[in-house]
Structures are given as C-alpha cells and as structure tokens.
Amino acid sequence: MSQREWIEKDFYKELGVSSSATADEIKKAYRKLARDNHPDANPGDTKAEERFKSVSEAHSVLSDAAKRKEYDETRKLFAGGGFGRGGFTPGTGYTGGGAGNFGGGEFNIGDLFGNASANDSGLGDLFGGLFNRGGGNRTAASRPRRGSDVETETTLGFREAAQGVTVPLRMTSPSPCTTCHGSGAKPGTSPRVCPRCNGSGVVSRNQGAFGFSEPCDDCRGTGSIIDDPCTDCHGSGIQNRTRTITVRVPPGVNDGQRIKLAGQGEAGLRGAPSGDLFVTVHVKADKVFGRAGDDLTLVLPVSYGELVLGTTVSVPTLDGRVGVKVPPGTVDGRILRVRGRGVPRRGGGVAGDLLVTVKVAVPQKLDATATAALEKYAEAERASGFDPRAGWAGA
C-alpha cells in the first residue's frame, strides 16, 4: 500500500469506532467484525472475505500504539489538503516568494523534515518516512513489508487449561504462495531491480522551488519489477489459504490469556517475514473445580456426624483421586490444604495446592428412626452443657 492510500483510508470507519476509541473498544469491534466476516463462516462470499481483509488491516494499524500515533498525526496534517500528489498547495504553509527566500537553490521539503532535531516532536521521522527521499539505500516504505499480526480465539475446558493441551486451529488467512515461495515471480525466474528508481522504490521530481519524492510508478514503490508473475498469486507472493495450525497450550493458562506464535500470522509481501499469531484462550467453568491463582479449589459436602467424629474422604484432583482427612470437631467452612495437587505452574516447578472447603449437608427429610436418634442426641447434647450460641450476640 502506498503512503497516499494509507493516509486516505479511514481505519476508524472500517471498524465502526470513533478516532478517540480506547484500545479495548477497538479490540472488541475488530473481534465482532472478524467473527461475522470470517471466510470460514461465509464460504464463497467474496464480499465478506474482502470485508474481513479490510478490518484485519485496520486492526493491524490501530491496535499498534506506535502505528496508530503515526497514522493519526499523518491524517491530521493532511486533512486540510495541504499536500497534493507530489506537490505543495499554495497558502498552506508557504507564503513567501521564490527560492531566494530560502537562501537560494532548491528547497526540498523532505530535507527540511528529514533533518529535524530531536526536539521537533518526531516530525523528522514522520515526514522522512512519508516523502522517502531517494538515494542509494532503500527506504523503509519500499522494503518488503512484514505481514500483519493475526488474532484468533479458542475455548478450552477447565481441566484442559489447567493441565495443558494441544489444539488444532483451522484458519483462513494470507499465506506465502506455495508456487513461487513468496517471491511473486514465476518459478525459474526472479524479480529484477527497477531501472527507474534503482531499487529505492521512490523517485524525485521538482515543482517550482520545491523538490519532492514519491513512490515509483514503474515498480509501485517496491524497488523491483516482476516481468513474469507467478500465475497462482499474480505476482503478490501471497495466497489466501486455509491451514491447520497446531497450538500447544501450556499448563496453567488463565482465562483471557494470549499465546503468541511467532511467524504464524499474515504472510509478508514478496518474501518479507510473516506477522505473528495471537491466540486468546477462553476457559469454561467446571462443575467441581475452581481456581485461585495456582491453587485448585473445591467444596466437599460432609455430614454433621463426619465433622464431629472425623473421617477420611476421597476427593478428585486433576490426575486421579486423593484421600483427605477431616479431623474430629472440624467446623463447617474450614479449608483443608493438600499440597502439590493444584494447578501446574507455568515454566515448571511445584504445582499449587488443592484447597478443600468442607460444607455440611443438612438432610431435608428423616425417617422415624433417624428422627428419634437425633432427638435423643439433642437431649444428650443439652445435658452435656453444650450451647452453640454461648457468647453470641451478648448472650
């Protein structure tokens, strides 16, 4: 994409957000649009596929703080139409006479901003990148462009997330062309250096007192020309392919955590490095287990008699069962700790603990025998002097 196209595109409009949207609002809007327009959800729908590409491109710029800042500053500067294609509109910053007002000779606006000092709020970097002054070295804008990062999501069961799992992800995204291996040229041929710009990707031209640089029309700013394009990718070096990526989710991953897979994102232009793939993991709730950091939690139902007399109960863990001893006289709600039977810690080391909360289960109905026995016990309890509300509420 040329600088002009980059400036003229309204990435905020593509995502349906305002220019003051927060990073979370941008992310939320992108996820909804990407999900609605994903090729897998709209097979054969070319409009949805193009829409998917557009929102992905917008997200790749607006989700990167540095790219977004440069994009916002550039659009603000160009919003008034001060700079035309390769020219300078009178009355928008230059109101003097001829070149003599600058001490004679040709004035190159790329030189002015390209040599700005560190106190010029980054204008040197901004305009140096925009105008791409020519020369022996290729500029950043004319180098093969790294592929955009790609985001996707996966949902795991609680125990899968705690123990770690390998999951296949089926994705449709721009990938290196398998025929030309990303070069864009027909197999057996190679791109050649553009003779007009000598591989720089930009050409300079003069307009009155000013000298400007702009993308080379012959090579479209790439610095190279493909005489015999690959028939499968039409010279782009990129194809939209559906592929299955195997993702190893490490043990102990949290709900909402992102996993980075370097080089698994969108393919770079003409052999440039691919972007990265970021997988957001969602974890389902479990009927038995909960989690507190690296500790595994569960609630153990027990009877009143078991709390009073004590017992040993078999409870589940992530890898089997373990016996938990309930000491005599245990109070309802007490937490019993079983060390090392919790969630495996990321990076290795000893796992967290299993925290077992005992909760007395009260029967809703009793038969005559159980009722008589309980009434006899209550009498014996009162006779022993036990008062459950002794000292309670000032008693």
From TrEMBL:
Per UniProt, where does Zn(2+) 1 bind? 177, 180, 230, 233
Q: What does the UniProt entry say about where the protein is found?
A: Cytoplasm
Q: How is the cofactor bound?
A: Binds 2 Zn(2+) ions per monomer.
Coarsely, its chief localization is: cytoplasm
Q: Which Gene3D superfamilies match?
A: DnaJ domain, Heat shock protein DnaJ, cysteine-rich domain, Urease metallochaperone UreE, N-terminal domain
Q: Which Pfam families match?
A: DnaJ, DnaJ_C, DnaJ_CXXCXGXG
At which positions is Zn(2+) 2 bound? 194, 197, 216, 219
As cofactor, the record names: Zn(2+)
Q: Is Transferase given among the entry's keywords?
A: no
Please name the PROSITE patterns in this protein's record: DNAJ_1, DNAJ_2, ZF_CR
Q: How does it assemble?
A: Homodimer.
Q: What name does UniProt use for this protein?
A: Chaperone protein DnaJ
According to the entry, what is the taxonomic lineage of the organism?
Bacteria, Bacillati, Actinomycetota, Actinomycetes, Mycobacteriales
